[in-house]
Design goal:
By secondary structure, this protein is of the alpha/beta class. The chain is built from ten helices and eight strands. The radius of gyration is 22 Å and the shape is globular.
Length: about 350
């Protein structure tokens, strides 16, 4: 074999060996979170209500979202073992559906049998009256089981915990107890699935830097913010500044964990809506399908420009599925991403990669 042929063969072999590496380097991992919370989905599907894509064709809503560009599904988890929507078992089944569509999973652990938010952080019934050490162990065990079973890409230890959680023990007024309970949840996630990225979730932007400043000892990955103009102010510039400030202050990533906006001020059932008055709107963004689209696209653009890790739309699927006479229906029907006929709205365009 001549030296020329030997060199040619070696060059070819090296090229073949390098080819997969080159291809891998050309692939861009889709790290920016484009999320939607669809926690009501089991109840909606059980009711027989049909959600449709933008062409008006009946379609699995998870598939509609995935095709629109959503890459992460957020699901709330309650401790209530028999709850038909938010029990750990039901959530695990929904997470599996997400995996089949190659959607990431973000869990929002409420540590309650019902809604947990800045005004309500009620302990689950099974944890009422137990000593603090037992409460801390319960947080660890519950979090570990959920994380080990579902292995979510993202997980919130608590939901909108401005004033702490598991009141009164874990109230932020009892700072050390609050930190111990948070740390129990964080430690459980790290032990059960080190790949799960941990979010601490604050509702709003006012006071957020101070809140996260008090939790610097906690080993979390992302600072999560809720932003609704009606509750948290109409300054998008303040939201942008807060994202930048938190990134610099905490050295961690930031995500807009919840946001939403109305496509109408009308209603489709007999349940009072959270937003129904013009004065509740953000100037320049009318309550129309186009206004909703403009708002969602602006939130995405703002998040990207400010260096956030992504955003998540809350109540995307919460349509008036219980019928027009329902007094216990949806208070969010005019902020969903499907209209009053169950058809996907233009705001879904804002999730495209």
């Amino acid at each position: 074999m001549t030296m020329f042929r030997l060199l040619a063969i070696c060059s070819l072999a090296i090229g073949i060996l390098m080819l997969p590496a080159c291809r891998r380097s050309e692939e861009k991992v889709d790290l920016f979170v484009r999320g939607a919370d669809v926690s009501f989905l089991p109840d909606i599907e059980a009711s027989g209500y049909v959600l449709r894509n933008s062409a008006g064709k009946a379609e699995d809503p998870l598939a509609t979202l995935q095709k629109a560009g959503v890459n992460t599904i957020r699901i709330r988890v309650w401790n209530h073992q028999a709850h038909p929507v938010s029990s750990p078992q039901v959530v695990a089944g929904r997470a599996e559906r997400c995996r089949q569509l190659e959607l990431r999973v973000m869990l929002s652990l409420h540590y309650s049998d019902t809604w947990a938010d800045p005004g309500n952080q009620q302990k689950p019934a099974a944890w009422q009256g137990i000593p603090f050490d037992a409460l801390r162990d319960s947080v660890y065990d519950f979090t570990y089981r959920i994380t080990k079973t579902i292995r979510p890409e993202y997980i919130q230890v608590g939901n909108e915990i401005n004033g702490g959680f598991l009141w009164p023990d874990g109230s932020s007024a009892n700072h050390q107890a609050f930190v111990q309970l948070l740390q129990a949840g964080v430690s459980a996630v790290r032990a059960a699935n080190p790949g799960s990225r941990i979010i601490l979730h604050y509702a709003g932007i006012d006071g957020a830097p101070e809140f996260f400043g008090r939790l610097s000892e906690i080993s979390y990955d992302l600072a999560g913010l809720s932003y609704y103009p009606y509750w948290h102010g109409t300054s998008l510039e303040t939201l942008s500044q807060t994202i930048r400030q938190l990134k610099a202050q905490t050295g961690r990533e930031v995500i807009v964990a919840e946001t939403a906006y109305p496509f109408s001020l009308q209603w489709n059932d007999n349940t009072h809506n959270v937003i129904g008055q013009p004065e509740q709107l953000l100037p320049g963004y009318p309550a129309t399908p186009q206004g909703q689209r403009d708002f969602v696209c602006r939130i995405r653009q703002l998040a990207e420009e400010a260096g956030a890790t992504g955003f998540c739309y809350w109540g995307a699927e919460w349509v008036s599925y219980k019928g027009p006479a329902a007094t216990n229906g949806s208070s969010w029907e005019n902020q969903a991403l499907w209209d009053f006929e169950g058809k996907a709205l233009p705001a879904m365009d804002c999730f495209r990669k």
